[in-house]
Amino acid sequence: MAARENTEADLLDLELRRQLYGNTTTYSFECGGKTEEILKLTRQDIIDYHSIYYDATNITIILTGNISEDAVFKRLSEFEDLFSSRNMTPTPTIPINPDPLADKFTLTTTSVKFPSDDMDVGSIGYAWRGPPTEDVITCTSLDILLRYLNDSSASPFFQEFVERDDPLASDVDFELRAYSTSALILIFSGVPYHESSNDVDGDEDGIPMDDGDEEWEDEEDEELQDEESDEEMEEDEDEPEEMHNEGKTTTEDLFGGDVFYQKLRGCLQNQVDSFDYEKLKAAIRRHIRKCTEGAEEDPHETVAGLMIPDIVRHYFSQCSLLNDTKYQGGTPKIGTRAPLFSILNDLLSKPKSYWIQLLRRWLIDQPMFEVKMTPDSQFALDIARKQETDFQNRVRNLGEDGLAVLKKQSEKNAQKSVVELSKNIIEAMPPIPKISSENRILAESEIVSLAPTDEVCRSFIEAQVIQTETSFASVRLGLNLGSVPEHLRVYLVLFQELLFQSDMNVVSDNGALVRIQDYRELVETSAELLNTYEASIGFGNELWHTSWLGEVFFISANSESGRCEEMYEHVLRVLMFSKFTEERVMTIAKNLLSELMEIKRDGSEMLTAVTSHVLSLSSKERTEPNDAISEKMDQIVSIFTQESFLKGVVKSIKENKGKDIIEALKRVQTHIIGFRSNDELKVGPSFVQLSLPLGSSSNVNRRQVGEKFAKLWEKLVRIYIQFNSPVSPSLLVADNSTPKTNKKPRLKSKKDQPETLNEKSIIPGRNVSSAFPYPRNCYDLCYRLWISKYIYYSSLLVPIAGLSTSFLNQVVACDVLNTDDYFPAELLSRAEGPLYTAIRGKGYAYDASLHVALWSGTITFTCTETTDPVSALQEFYKIISQLQTPAGFDEICSDFHIETAIASVLYKNVAGKSTAGSCVFSGIRSALQGFLTLDQVEANEKKLYEVNKKDLERVYNTYFAAFLNPTETRVTVLVTSPGKTADDLKNSFSKLSFPDALRFEKKTLSELKL
Question: pTM for the whole thing?
Answer without folding.
Answer: 0.88
